[in-house]
Automatic annotation (TrEMBL), chain A:
This is Replication factor C subunit 1. InterPro entries: AAA+_ATPase, ATPase_AAA_core, BRCT_dom, BRCT_dom_sf, DNA_pol3_clamp-load_cplx_C, DNA_replication_fac_RFC1_C, P-loop_NTPase, RFC1. SUPFAM superfamilies: BRCT domain, P-loop containing nucleoside triphosphate hydrolases, post-AAA+ oligomerization domain-like. Residues 809-829 have a biased composition (Acidic residues). It comes from the Eukaryota.
UniProtKB/TrEMBL annotation, chain B:
The keyword Lyase does not apply. Residues 34-202 form the AAA+ ATPase domain. Keywords: DNA replication. CDD domains: AAA (cd00009). PANTHER family: REPLICATION FACTOR C / DNA POLYMERASE III GAMMA-TAU SUBUNIT, REPLICATION FACTOR C SUBUNIT 3. The keyword Disulfide bond does not apply. This is AAA+ ATPase domain-containing protein.
Length: 848, 382
């Protein structure tokens, strides 16, 4: 019902910022009306005395130009904002020039009152749905039309949703739910998934879950629809008005800021003290050269400067850090008892794994330092081959620290003499570090020194050797919440003004990489002194490009309805860039998944034509995918025309995506083409081998062998076994010898059946295992004719008949030799003794 | 116990029953001692190879039947070693360069040159001298050349064919080429002009029946399973040859399978087709009947299964098109002709794409989707 909005809104962009606000509102008022646009609209508007005449005239034109605009009459209900209300408590720079009629003093409650409730039809529970389980419900929602994505949420005032707890449920008619969540949290609202007593309002779409609807009715929670949400965004004053909840939230936020500042001041104080102390110590021995760590802070990287120096400062993974600490603390006690403890206390070594930039190395160092251990670190910059590990590491594992020895004289702490070994970047042990992994894992069993191993990806096959020898600690990415105070502290100390809400945005842009966020901050601080919504959007976008998307994310974006249409989230070049994130996989993944969407283009299609329309969209997509293969051939084939890559991007990914984009039905699947292709290669190879062996007999080519011989051969070679059991063996073996087929060929042949009737695996189950082993035994009991000597795997397979090599003179003769029975060892000898090819045909004779 | 199709393969030209004119020509050619390079083409199961081998036997005698397989090794410029199987007797050799994929040019260049540059020594002179000094004396003079049979010649790359054209002339004193292929459309003109094309058509239904009857006469056990009435037998033979699309090899296989699976064969005994034909047929019918997205999804797994099991994509497309063609022919629609035309036109487009592209599944799916749209549109309109 809100289709006209775009038009209205677009035009308003042309006006100066000071006029923008009322115009947007106007546009929304009009667009949410239900009557066709005609002169009546102007009558409605003329009631609104806020509008200046020239503008109105222009707007009237605008609406008339779009005759299909449905208009609603209740638009008038909107409350008039009185300019006399008090100003926002914290007017933001650049916004103060706005007309003040936006009622800044109202409470959220008051404003919510003015917004019409959601259409009661949303609250009707389909009786069918009540009895559905989770998966049925999910399937149902995926069938529902996806959001059209042709509407863009307006910008509200900063923090205008402060103090509100919002729940989004169901499918909103035009806006993607994720987008709504993003906007809402950007404006300071707390978005939760389930409804509780604290929920201040629910934004509801169709196909909302029956449980949620029940909750809404029970708790009598204010319930608005998408239009209401848009209205709310526009009406809410900055900082969430003067309502109680808003005030509390605001106070909380200010408290947070205050804490950050306090923390920053405390740190600075400590820093100063430490420096003073150092200076005093150094005073006596001023001849000492300056050490690099004494460089002034301004020359250090922020990530070094603000690296945590204390366990308390580590963001996130608190439990793991504590566990690590207590493990290290009790390590030597445990060593005495031979590591009989449970859990982490039963291990000599610990493996820390987790994505980069979340403080694994830092945590390990701090923990060691906090207990007074001396640290030896080895990382990927050191060669860590088996030999070197043996030479260097083994000796140090039973040593004690010299530095610690002298320190101990001062402190008398036994830990000071002790060493902890940190092996960083264990998964970076490359081919150059031959045997290093296994050796390290050996050390983990026997080490006399606590050993902390650090890696990024524990699931790699080469890391499996550590599974049993190390206790596994998985580091998780710290959440935005956990990082917030630390980042605020840093910002304060550097004099950078940072809006707390944007931390979440930076967190999302960097994939929770705290190191990168600090780097971003330090870069920004060079040029500007504030980091807020106006520039964070752009900053996070610039940095986001650094993250290479995984194929699943790329496909998710390319097949999402919000990526296309007049208000697409990405423009064409951005969509092409998505393809370039992984140009090998994207086309394959699109091909795998393009049929599992509910295209948003189907919205509004009459039911009887829906299927046809859907097929037509798929046809356009599949046609484009098919054409893209020809382009791909030009790129990767002999011509190597790589300049066509963007064209391939459009044909293979963007164009098909634009046709079928919409809600995904089910998960995004990984491409099956790779598996199928390697399967095809395997069968081609087997077929070729079969052809080589049987060609002197069948006189045909590979293709005909496959199409004509194989289906019948499968039956003839299996039927006697299936029908007659052991007594059919001779018949099968006779046929196999006739075509020079080995037992391995027999097994391979049985895999060639296709279709429900052709597949042999089920049929062969009826053959008893006694028959099968009798078959194998019988086959091995005598040697079989061969026409071909093939190098390679002929001897390695136990069941295979010995492959026989034709003599150098190409002599073909009958094998008169007695072949030993039934014993594998003798078969081995066979190969050595018997080089002659053996033929059963009578036609063969000796030629010299 | 070999399959009937191999057991009853004719060994000499005189045993061949159908296409008597071609057999006669080959016989004349063989006895003249000289023959040009040959390009033998025709549909599968029409007896191309059988005819060629029979001709060789006519020229060289039974020695051509003593076959062996050698593995030759070729090294590429990159240093990679490739293995290549050659079937040979002392008079001829048989190669399938398309086994080597894109490296087939090397086989043509190295192997053919090697053979072409060596004069073949004629052992048979001594052999014949011992056996019968007089009868075959003049024969030795016409065995100066070796025959090289090139299988699947239509699959040769352009490069390989280009390498072939000069070799054919330069070494014609020592080698004769016989190219065997299903169609000549991929063979470049220079090669066509250097060869004598011989087309071997599929045997007619009656010729097919004749061969089948001949086999039954020799297989006494099987003879008993089939009806005594020659009329009835002919009906069965006709059904078999129709089902096999007059592919004689397939026909014989089908007859043997019928005999193996049924103790008595009557005119109503179902014909046992290769499994993949049934699968393709089922797929095509289901597409025609149920035009929906979920059906497309099922079609993908079927297509993948067929392709993975080495069924050629082009053949799949052809079979699908023909089945859909038959299906639409049986429909009761007013502008049926238009619809069928659209199907064929789509098929030709995707056939070309299969030749040019590399990911078969993309094109087959494109075709299936297109057919669904064509049919659904007609159903919705009518």
């Amino acid at each position: 019902m809100l289709t006209s909005k775009n038009k209205g809104k677009k035009v308003t962009h042309d006006h100066s910022p000071s006029q923008q606000k009322p115009k947007i509102q106007e546009a929304y008022q009009n667009s949410s009306s239900k009557q066709p646009a005609d002169s009546k609209v102007i009558l409605v508007d003329s009631d609104d005395d806020e509008i200046v005449t020239p503008q109105r005239k222009r707007k009237a034109e605008l609406i008339e130009s779009d005759t299909e605009v449905p208009v609603k009459k209740e638009a008038k209900v909107l409350p008039k904002k009185s300019p006399s209300k008090p100003k926002s408590t914290k007017p933001q720079a650049g916004r103060s020039s706005q007309p003040s009629q936006a009622g800044t003093g109202e409470t959220a409650q008051e404003i919510l009152e003015t917004i019409p409730d959601a259409d009661p039809k949303y609250l009707e529970v389909d009786p069918e749905m009540e009895n559905m389980n989770f998966f049925q419900l999910k399937a149902r929602t995926s069938e529902a039309p996806a959001p059209t994505g042709d509407r863009v949420l307006p910008e509200g005032r900063p923090n205008c949703l402060n103090g509100l707890t919002i729940v989004f449920t169901g499918i909103l008619p035009t806006i993607d739910r994720d987008e709504c969540v993003r906007i809402a949290s950007k404006h300071g609202a707390k978005v939760t998934k389930s409804i509780s007593g604290k929920t201040s309002l629910v934004v509801i779409g169709h196909e909302a879950g029956p449980k949620k609807i029940k909750m809404i009715k029970e708790k009598k929670i204010k319930c608005i629809d998408e239009d209401g949400f848009v209205e709310l965004l526009q009406k809410m004053p900055a900082d969430g008005g003067s309502g109680e909840a808003a005030q509390v939230a605001k106070a909380k936020r200010e408290e947070e800021e205050r804490k950050a500042i306090e923390e920053a001041e405390r740190e600075e104080e400590e820093n100063r003290k430490r420096k003073d102390q150092l200076r005093q110590e150094r005073a006596g021995q001023s001849s000492q050269p300056e050490r690099p760590s004494d460089k002034p802070d301004t020359e250090k990287l922020w990530t070094v400067k603000y690296a945590p120096t204390d366990i308390k400062q580590i963001c996130g993974n608190k439990g793991n850090v504590e566990l690590l600490q207590s493990w290290l603390e009790h390590w030597f006690d445990n060593a005495k008892t031979g590591f009989k403890g449970s859990g982490i206390f039963g291990y000599r070594a610990v493996m820390i794994s987790g994505p980069p930039g979340i403080g694994k190395t830092t945590a390990a160092h701090i923990v060691a330092k906090s207990l007074g251990f001396d640290v030896i670190e080895k990382n990927a910059s050191d060669v860590r081959s088996k030999k070197l590990l043996n030479e260097q590491l083994r000796s140090s594992l039973s040593n004690s620290s010299v530095v610690g020895y002298f320190n101990q004289l001062k402190t008398h702490d036994p830990n000071n003499r002790r060493i902890v070994m940190i092996m960083d970047e264990v998964d970076g042990m490359s081919s150059g570090d031959h045997g290093g992994g296994a050796q390290l894992s050996q050390f983990c069993r026997t080490t006399e020194t606590p050993l902390i191993l650090i890696c990024n990806d524990k699931s790699l096959p080469k890391m499996r050797t550590f599974d049993k020898t190390c206790y596994d600690l998985t580091w998780r990415r710290p959440t935005g919440k956990e990082m917030k105070s630390r980042l605020m502290t840093i910002a304060h100390r550097e004099g950078l003004k940072m809006d707390p809400n944007i931390i979440d945005q930076l967190v999302a842009a960097t994939n929770n990489d705290i190191r990168q966020i600090i780097n971003i901050m330090s870069t920004v601080a060079r040029t500007q002194k504030t980091l807020n919504y106006e520039n964070s959007e752009q900053i996070s976008r610039t940095w986001q490009k650094e993250v290479i998307l995984k194929p699943f994310d790329i496909v998710g974006k390319l097949l999402s309805g919000a990526s296309y249409g007049s208000h697409a989230r990405y423009n064409l070049s951005e969509k092409i860039n998505l393809y370039f994130n992984d140009m090998d996989f994207t086309p394959l993944m699109i091909h795998e998944n393009y049929r599992s969407t509910t295209p948003s283009k189907l919205t509004g299609c009459p039911a009887n034509k829906r299927n046809l329309r859907h097929l037509e969209l798929l046809e356009e997509a599949s046609n484009s995918i098919s054409e893209s293969d020809l382009v791909n051939q030009l790129i990767r084939g002999g011509e190597q025309q790589w300049s066509l890559a963007p064209f391939h991007a459009v044909l293979s990914s963007v164009l098909p995506g634009s046709k079928v984009a919409g809600g995904m039905n089910g998960r995004i699947m990984f491409t099956s083409w790779l598996g199928q292709n390697s399967k095809k290669m395997k069968y081609d190879r087997i077929l070729q081998d079969l052809q080589y062996h049987s060609s002197t007999k069948t006189m045909t080519n590979t293709q005909e062998l496959r199409l004509t011989y194989i289906p019948f051969l499968i039956n003839m070679l299996s039927d006697p076994l299936i029908k007659n059991g052991a007594s059919g063996i001779d018949k099968v073996l006779e046929l196999m010898d006739e075509y020079y087929l080995t037992k391995e060929h027999w097994d391979n042949l049985m895999e060639f059946g296709v279709g429900a009737k052709g597949r042999m695996d089920q049929k062969l189950k009826s053959v008893s295992s006694a028959t099968k082993s009798a078959f194998t035994r019988k086959y091995n009991s005598y040697s079989h004719p061969t026409v071909i000597y093939k190098t390679g795997d002929s001897v390695t397979k136990g069941n295979r008949a010995p492959a026989l090599k034709p003599d150098l003179d190409d002599v073909i003769e009958d094998d008169t030799k007695d072949v030993p029975d039934d014993e594998p060892q003798e078969e081995q000898e066979d190969i050595k003794n018997d080089k002659l090819i053996k033929q059963v045909k009578k036609s063969t004779k000796r030629r010299k | 116990m070999s399959l009937w199709a191999d057991k009853y393969r004719p060994r000499s030209l005189s045993e061949l029953t159908f296409h008597p004119r071609i057999s006669k020509q080959l016989q004349v050619m063989a006895s003249s001692g000289e023959f040009p390079h040959l390009l033998v083409y025709g549909p599968p199961g029409s007896g191309k190879k059988t005819r060629v081998l029979a001709t060789l036997r006519e020229i060289y005698g039974a020695g051509t039947e003593r076959l062996r397989v050698d593995v030759k090794t070729f090294s590429l410029s990159s240093g990679r070693k490739l293995e290549f199987n050659v079937i040979s007797s002392s008079f001829h050799l048989e190669i399938t360069p398309s086994d080597m994929g894109n490296n087939d040019r090397i086989v043509i260049q190295d192997l053919l040159k090697e053979i072409g540059q060596t004069e073949s020594l004629d052992f048979s002179k001594f052999e014949n001298a011992v056996v019968s000094p007089n009868t075959r004396e003049h024969a030795s003079s016409r065995k100066k050349f070796k025959v090289v049979i090139i299988n699947e010649a239509e699959l040769l790359t352009r490069d390989a064919q280009a390498a072939l054209r000069r070799t054919m002339e330069k070494y014609s004193a020592n080698i004769r080429l016989i190219l065997i292929c299903n169609t000549t459309s991929n063979i470049i003109d220079p090669i066509k002009s250097r060869t004598l094309p011989i087309r071997i058509a599929s045997p007619s239904t009656s010729a097919c029946a004749e061969v089948l009857e001949m086999i039954l006469r020799k297989e006494h056990h099987a003879r008993k399973a089939f009806p005594d009435d020659s009329e009835h037998r002919n009906i069965i033979f006709k059904r078999i040859s129709d089902a096999s699309e007059r592919n004689l090899r397939m026909s014989i296989m089908m007859m043997e399978a019928m005999y193996m699976n049924h103790d008595t064969v009557s005119i109503n005994t179902p014909i046992i087709k290769p499994d993949w034909i049934d699968v393709v047929h089922e797929l095509a019918t289901s597409i025609c009947k149920d035009r929906s997205v979920s059906r497309l999804q099922q079609a993908r797994s079927t297509l993948y299964e067929l392709l993975a099991h080495a069924i050629p994509a082009k053949l799949l497309l052809k079979k699908l098109t023909l089945t859909i063609w038959d299906f639409t022919g049986a429909l009761d629609l007013k502008d049926k002709a238009e619809l069928r035309k659209a199907v064929i036109s789509a098929s030709t487009i995707y056939d070309e794409r299969l030749s040019l592209g590399s990911k078969d599944i993309f094109h087959l799916e494109g075709f299936i989707t297109k057919v669904m749209v064509i049919l659904e549109r007609y159903v919705v309109i009518n």
